[in-house]
Amino acid sequence: MAGFKGKKYKEEKVSEIVKLINDSSVIAVGSLSNLPDRQLQKLRKMLRNDATLIVTRNTLLKRAFKKAGKAPEVLEQLDGPSVVIFTSKMDPFKLYQVIRSSWGKAAAKPGQVAPFDLLVEKGETSLPPGPVLTELKQAGIQAQIKDGKVVINKDSVVAKEGEKISPQAANALSKLEIKPFEVGLNLTSAWESGVVYAREILDVNVEEYLANVQTAFCNAVALSCEVAYPTKQNIETLLGKAVRNSKGLALEANVYTKDVIDLILAKANAQANALKTKAKVE
Q: Which residue, 151, 158, 190, 198, shows the most beta carbons closer than 10 Å to its own?
């Protein structure tokens, strides 16, 4: 009976995944390695109205994708414990940004490799005097008691980039509430219309990207104005420039029009005054 239930469960699960595959325009794969359950639940809550997360055996996932006959490229992304995300409400880049925003800080553990130089900056701490002073010194942090508080005397690197974090350093960082690691779902790739986007492509710095687009737009408008190529974006600027140039030409050639007659008279008056001054005529 247990075997029968197991078979029935698998069939139902495969059918569920097949429906999600057929109904979704975007399918993403993430690695569950080193992902705390609380982070996964947080992500489920964030995406509950926009996407569906499936965590099950890769064998069932592969069976479902083959049965659906859609997005076969996703099968190549299933390596190790994985979560598959199905959505039709977000493109791959938006989905990646939402997932990235769910990441949180995590404390260092002994034996972990430092992702960068782990620096403890000098200054006052909130730690009360006591054994903690010795613990900080064991981690290579110069500290002392001042005005009843523990004060870091100078910037101290407790672990360099690429080095394993010692138990003393991990303990000191924990006491100082320094969390150097980020924890979250590592989205490895996303599929859309037969195209697989790797994490490196999805990881877009939005602020930098928008700044580049704005700079490109300004440069394009400036170039189009320089060569007098009319567009919707520059037509007012071009017309304004043409008006100024035509007035300048009319003024230079003394062409009498209602737009420049006042300027011509003002120029003539200025020239007359200049001549009077030079001729010493009162």
A: 190
Q: How high is the pLDDT of residue 5?
A: 53
Assign domain 2-103+184-204 to its CATH architecture. Answer: 2-Layer Sandwich (3.30)
State the virtual CA torsion across 219, 225, 231, 234 in degrees, nearest 10: 80
CATH architecture assignment, domain 118-181: Alpha-Beta Complex (3.90)
Q: What is the mean pLDDT of each run of 10 residues along the chain (282 residues)?
A: 65 93 95 84 91 92 92 86 94 93 88 91 87 89 86 90 93 91 89 92 84 90 88 89 82 78 82 78 68
Q: Compute the distance between CA of residue 10 and CA of residue 57 in angstroms, rounded to an integer.
A: 10
What b/e string do you get for 247-279 counting C-beta neighbours within 10 Å, with b at 16 or more?
eeebbeeeeeeeebeeebeeeeeeeeeeeeeee
- Give the start-to-end residue ranges of the domains of the chain: 2-103+184-204, 118-181, 209-279
Per-residue three-class SS string for 140-194 = CCCEEEECCEEEECCCEEEECCCCECCHHHHHHHHHCCCCCEEECCEEEEEEECC
